[in-house]
Specification:
The chain is an all-alpha fold. Among the domains are: 79 residues, no CATH class; 86 residues, no CATH class; 132 residues, no CATH class. Helices cover 67% and strands 1% of the residues. The protein has 17 helices and four strands.
């Protein structure tokens, strides 16, 4: 009955009460006593209590787990916010409202969103730290691309401020990298230009610094390390120094070539073969930019040519030395300075033949002599120009006196008007002679004081020439006055005779000393005109011991008498006064 009643679904819903009633019915049928019934009921109550206890414990454990989960979620939320540098975040639920499961359900999406944001932030940090690490490796030069690993990101600090610091650091490194790259490229360009000028292999040279500097490698892949920059800087300095040395050597060779060419009168066609050498003779280092301009083979070529010309110069030494001596003699001749040319030439030939003097030293010494001769000629230039004017004026004076003695000068013959014009100009010029002589004397004396030596003109002291000219000019003027007085005396005598005897004698040549015509040449002069090529004639020593009317200084050497030619009217009286013939050189 009990089994049937328990399994019968018609009895309705099974509950604890229905089961207890059924149990009572079974006990009644069985005939259980009250003690057994109480014992079994007590057992049922104890079993029910154990079940409730287990369920309560399970519920408590579940609640504790949920509370721990909520606490962990809140802690994770706080940690994420701290790591991300977020003081607050929109969507965070209020902790004081809702059940535990509601609070967990509210925190879950926030945590998920913050986790995603953290992952993205970590990627950003990793990317920027990787770039920083790479650039630092490029700058240090110690880190290869294969050695660059994933950087360790500090997940405790993923704030935007920290990220901004990394960005600033990256920008500074990128700027430094850009600056270094520009320096590297500038150095490489400079090395390329220097190698081109020096005729060196650029690729081999630049590979000695770093293989990445080759043109075949991309710009961003070039080494920018401190070591690379240091090596490039040293290489540029070394190449510039080499360029400077080669240019100095080339300029020295070009100067030697030019001197040798000028010395041996090398034709222009032969010189043009070395235009690429001589074109750089006066340029600066920075101005030499033509590729191959300072190549070693070019310098060696110039050295070989200089050596060849030196050997050729040695074989032509006599010819070159005589050419220099001739140049020196021409300078002295133009400056009217007498030198012993024959002795100088003999001395030069003896030195060359003896072999005791270096040809270069001999030529250098002759160059110094030529330079000194030019300086001396320059110092005499102004005086010599005035001497030329004086001599020219004296020639005009001589011509004018010859013209004045010509009785037919006013005739209507052909060319008479030209002589008349010349005579007018000559008179003006002759009147300037005294002033010209005084100026010439003053300048000559000043020159002698400055140089502490006598100013000679073709071996004769110029002051003696001027003094002699002045004295002869005075003699000539006195002779002219004497002749004029004598002429007036004869005219007065003729007038008196005419008054006494009533008739005038026929015209006759005035009584006076017989005219002596001195020899004249193109270079000679009369009436005190100095000769352009002086001769010492009978006065070889060039000194007069006697003075005239106290106007001459006995200590000053006088010009020889034959240096100045005398006019035809003065010749006889001058001969009688000095007992010497006046000869033209």
């Amino acid at each position: 009955m009990a089994a049937t009643g328990y399994d019968n679904p018609l009895l309705g819903e099974i509950t604890c009460g229905s089961l207890l009633q059924q149990l009572q019915l079974i006990w009644d049928e069985v005939g259980e006593n009250d003690e057994e019934r109480d014992k079994m009921l007590l057992q049922l109550e104890q079993e029910c209590l154990d079940v409730y206890k287990r369920k309560v414990d399970q519920a408590a454990n579940s609640r504790a787990f949920l509370l721990q989960a909520l606490a962990d979620s809140n802690a994770e939320l706080a940690r994420l916010l701290s790591a991300l540098g977020e003081k607050s975040f929109s969507g965070i639920p209020d902790k004081s409202s809702g059940t535990i499961k509601e609070q967990l359900a509210a925190v879950a999406p926030v945590l998920e969103q913050l986790c995603k944001q953290k992952e993205e932030r970590v990627k950003e940090f990793a990317a920027i730290q990787l770039q920083i690490q790479k650039i630092r490796g490029e700058i240090s030069g110690n880190l290869k691309n294969s050695e660059i690993g994933t950087p360790r990101v500090d997940e405790e600090d993923l704030s935007l401020n920290k990220l901004e610091e990394y960005h600033s650091q990256l920008q500074e490194l990128q700027k430094e990298k850009s600056d270094r790259l520009h320096k590297v490229l500038d150095f490489v360009s400079t090395v390329h230009d220097l190698c081109a000028v020096l005729g060196m292999d650029f690729f081999c040279t630049i590979n000695e610094v770093h293989p990445s500097l080759n043109d075949s490698v991309g710009v961003q892949s070039k080494s920018i390390s401190n070591d690379t920059l240091s090596k490039l800087s040293k290489m540029v300095i070394a190449l510039k120094e080499e360029k400077k040395k080669r240019l100095e050597k080339l300029q020295e060779l070009a100067s030697q070539l030019t001197d040798l060419w000028n010395l041996m009168d090398t034709p222009t066609e032969e010189r043009s073969l070395f235009d690429h050498v001589t074109c750089n003779i006066s340029v600066t280092v920075d101005e030499v930019t033509i590729p191959g301009a300072l190549a070693l083979d070019l310098i060696e070529q110039a050295e070989v040519e200089v050596e060849r010309l030196d050997q050729l110069k040695a074989s032509r030494m006599k010819e070159i030395a005589i050419k220099r001596q001739t140049e020196l003699e021409e300078i002295y001749a133009h400056a009217h300075i007498e030198i012993d040319s024959a002795s100088a030439r003999e001395k030069i030939m003896a030195l060359i033949e003896s072999g005791n003097v270096d040809p270069s030293e001999l030529l250098a010494d002759m160059d110094i002599q030529i330079l000194k001769a030019k300086e001396e000629a320059q110092s005499r230039k102004e005086i010599l120009e005035k001497v030329e004017k004086w001599m020219s004026a004296c020639e005009e004076e001589s011509w004018l006196e010859d013209y004045n003695r010509d009785d037919s000068r006013y005739s209507s013959s052909r060319g008479a008007h030209l002589n008349l014009k010349r005579a007018e100009k000559a008179r003006i010029l002759v009147n300037k002679i005294p002033v010209l002589v005084d100026t010439l004397v003053a300048k000559t004396q000043a020159w002698e004081e400055d140089h502490n030596m006598s100013f000679s003109y073709d071996g004769v002291p110029l002051l003696a020439m001027l003094d002699e000219y002045t004295m002869l000019r005075q003699d000539r003027e006195e002779e002219k006055r004497r002749l004029r007085d004598q002429k007036r005396f004869h005219e007065q005598l003729a007038t008196e005779q005419e008054a006494l005897f009533g008739s005038r004698p026929s015209p006759a040549r005035p009584l006076g000393p017989k005219k002596v015509v001195g020899p004249r040449t193109n270079g000679g002069a009369s009436n005190g005109t100095p000769n352009r090529r002086l001769s010492l004639s009978t006065h070889q020593n060039g000194v007069r011991s006697a003075s005239r009317d106290g106007k001459r200084d006995n200590n000053r050497p006088a010009a020889p008498i034959n240096y100045v030619a005398i006019s035809k009217e003065d010749a006889a009286s001058h001969v009688s006064g000095n007992d010497q013939a006046c000869a033209s050189p």
